[in-house]
Amino acid sequence: MSLLAPTDSSWAREYRGRFVVFEGPDGSGKSTQLRRFAALLKDQGVALCEVREPGGTPVGERIRKHIVLARAEEGLEMSVRCEMLLYMASRSELVEKTIFPALKRGEMVLADRYVASTLAYQGAAGALAMADISAVARIATRNLMPDLYVIFDIDEQAAAKRLSPLLDRMEAKGAAFHRQVRQGYLDQAKQDPGRYCVIDASQSEEQVWVSVQRTLAERAKTLLPLRARG
Asked: Which one, of 2, 1, 11, 10, lies nearest residue 215 by Cα?
């Protein structure tokens, strides 16, 4: 028997003032689910700030469009360390100009990617030391951690079938790379189950959406008290 979504969506109000990040490999469907969750939050009257990474600011959007996510055929090559630092530069600007101000206003911040992506892509798959990434992240984000990471888990073969044939730099890195990315996310979730939850993203969009609602409704019961930010 398939599971049903909660009939009462008032649990979403518990996410007021929270910082929640949707994460997962390319092709996991996380952005689609993020849009659906954002609509539910707005229906429940939750003041919301939506952001994406890289991007979200004039500086971040230039880094996104012209460098880190340029189309694969453009031949823009760089070291993994340089790549990591560019993502962190975009993230630093986003935290400073958008995320912290929104949290201070009492809004919920819903992000499409954050530090967990760098740990998975440039760390687990790119072989950069996790300690180095975490050290840079503490500086770039002023040590701002999300209340919750929602990981959309899918294997690399299934994810590849969902991607556009016009792959960007990260999408075009191959099956072995994306297998390591997936494992990187799962390892993070295993190490910090209080901050991470994992959704089976191999299901249909509707089934995944039911899982998202059930999981986040359950997690709403265990959120820690809000603390001052900044």
From this structure: 11
